[in-house]
Amino acid sequence: MRAALQSEIGQDKLEVVDDMETVGFGPGKVRIRIKATGLCHSDLSAMSGVLPQPAPFIPGHEGSGEIVDVGDGVTSHAIGDRVLVCWLPPCGHCPACRRGQGHLCLESFANVATPNFRRGTGDIFGFAGTGTFAEEMVVPAACAIPIPDDVPYDIAALIGCGVTTGLGAAINTAQVQAGSSVAVIGCGGVGISVIQGAKVQGAAQIVAVDPVASRREAALRFGATEGVAPDAFGDARNRITGGEGFDYVFEVVGKSATAQTAYEMTRRGGTVCVVGAGALDDNFQINMFSLFFDEKRILPSMYGGGDVLRSYERTIALWRAGRVDLEGLITHRVNLAEVNDALDQMRTGVALRTCIEL
């Protein structure tokens, strides 16, 4: 089968091969024929080594498709089921899951270290235990979440990661209050989803901060009240909040420098929400006096910060009601052979989300 392969960490191009095999199918597993997958910035971070990932590997973790086979003991799924890929399914019995924090389930991370592809005699990993840049994949049944018939595959793929992450950061983690002021640093697919989440919550002002003009313009269509370049962010704070700072600032880049900016732009007693996935050696520092005296809440948000299965359902309900725009997030479409074009679209910022159709 065809797949897009990253042979070594640090390579900036993927090799599309046609001799990949899936491995690991058996009890408790399902085989999915991938129909659509989104390119998330986390895929680029894994390729560059910012996020730890064994190599060689197949990127992609934001996908959807159809089940073509089920292993022994799987009673929750059937051949022909339409599903989205959940790269971090809650196991239901670990300490985090028992506390109601299934998005922090460590047991699911065991999938990351288990090869689920093979090429020749060599083991190949799937990014985040999945690897949706392939025509087929084998995953535990818990990773395959059934989707209603009215949800297209491309929309379902986005719900599997970026949309859930962004909406959840605003709704679950920060719990944006109606009438508040919000700023979002980084307005790709996840940042735009944060903006939509803040709009759903009733924020009065939503400022989109991004160096790419087309992304700032796009943010206005999704609920931002204005868009500014990073060098105009301070002026926007002074104009909108009288210099006090925003009630909520979301960092959706994954850099300590932008996290520092987010902290500085947040009012005393406000909330800094860190959504971007950063590197292990990129440290964010705050002096202890400011931490105490300004009482700013610093809230990391992983995978939307809540029950991902409930978040999927909520997103579909909001989409059906016209409260969030998911179709508009997909600005580019390519086939698997054009995957490197999709990488360039993400790196240059011209795409909010590129959908790879298989």
The portion of residues assigned to helices is 25-40%
Number of helices, where a helix is a run of at least 4 consecutive DSSP H or I residues: 11
- Listing every helix as H and every strand as E from the N terminus to the C terminus, the arrangement reads EEEEHEEEHEEEEHHEHEHEHEHEHEHEHE
Distance between the termini: 11 Å
| Poorly predicted residue ranges | none
Mean residue pLDDT:
95
SSE-based structural type: alpha/beta
Strand proportion: 25-35%
Biggest sheet, in brief? 7 strands, mixed
Q: Using only CA atoms, what is the Rg?
A: 20 Å
Number of strands: 19
The coarse overall form would be globular
Structural notes for this entry:
With about 350 residues, this protein is α/β, with parallel strands linked by helices. Helix content is about 30%, strand content about 25%. Strands 4, 6, 7, 10, 11, 18 and 19 form a 7-stranded mixed beta sheet that branches. It has a 6-stranded parallel beta sheet with strand order 14-13-12-15-16-17, with helices on both faces. A 4-stranded mixed beta sheet has the order 3-8-9-5, with no helix packed on it. It is globular and about 60 Å long.
